Amino acid sequence: QSVLPQSPSASGTPGQRVTIFCSGSSSNIGRNPVHWYQQLPRTAPKLLIFSNDRRPSGVPDRFSGSKSGSSASLAILGLQSEDEAVYFCAAWDDTLEVLVFGTGTEVTVL
Amino acid sequence: EEQLVESGGGLVKPGGSLRLSCAASGFSFNYYSMHWVRQAPGKGLEWVSAISPTGHHLYYADSVRGRFTISRDNPETSLFLHMIGLRAEDSAVYYCARPGDGSETALDLWGQGTVVTVSS
Question: A29, exposed or middle or buried, with CB in 10 Å at 0-12, 13-18, 19+?
Answer without folding.
Answer: buried
